[in-house]
Write a structure and sequence with these properties.
There is one protein chain. With 284 residues, the protein is of the alpha/beta class. It folds into two domains: 95 residues, Rhodanese-like domain (Oxidized Rhodanese, domain 1), CATH 3.40.250.10; 169 residues, Vaccinia Virus protein VP39 (Rossmann fold). It contains eight helices and 14 strands. The strands form three sheets. The chain has a seven-stranded mixed β-sheet. Helix 4 runs parallel beside helix 5. The chain is globular and about 65 Å long.
Amino acid sequence: MVGRGGCVALSNKSDDARILDVRREDAFEACHRSGAVNIPLESLVTRIHELPPRGRRLTIFDTCRTRAFWACSRLRARGRSEIDIVHGEAWLATGPTARGPSTDRLWEPHGLLVEGVEAGRRLWGTVEGRLSLDVACGCGRDTAYLALAGFSVVGWDVLPDALDRCREMALRCGVSVRTECRDVEIDPTIDPSGYDLICCFNFLHRPLLPAILGGVRDGGLVVYETFVHPQREMFGKPRREAHLLNPGELRGHFEGWHVLTYREHLAGPRRYVASLIARKPRTE
């Protein structure tokens, strides 16, 4: 049945979708479908960064039909169309259930960062206790992922609200991170040889690149991905030339490094990017 706002109202399907339970925490903890993640409707807008990428199918559940449709409407207004709705107490009994708070997550880190962390494990044996820096970390999905992987993590961003959400999400994941409010366009400096891994996504300030290269310890890694021409020609954004790499430019900054991964490609809907993982050579 097609419900209001073009959402599909379901009674017992979407087994391949992730379940977003938008009930209040006490109701969720009393009983919920196994694997469901709780983000109450009242917190949904401020925790939108904790959802999966837009292309992932999502099932929204609330015992109250109105609340479920409200949640769907808010997500559709933010460009999400792969949404199903289920509502009513009876649906809980159609599959395995659990009690207690959320133990799963819906959000995903950048795929390139996952690749970079795995490269670190192969190169170093373990990433436990190594120090990483997430530049322009935003609301902190990648910052939290690094902490979950075992790194000690520092996240930088210019927006205090984003850093608040970064710390809150890390706490919900059971890890802690350190954050600093930094405008790297004003102060593009990084402690020399201060980090085992530095990552940066969807951000470009060319004067910062030498600091990133210098901020990695010998044998350490840089994981970098941001927009490259023909991004603007294909999708119209970003509008400022300074925010776009030229073809081959990113790799050129890492001359003399061991480049483990380099791609210029369509990485997702409306995202044409340069993706790099590079290891700093050891000095003898």
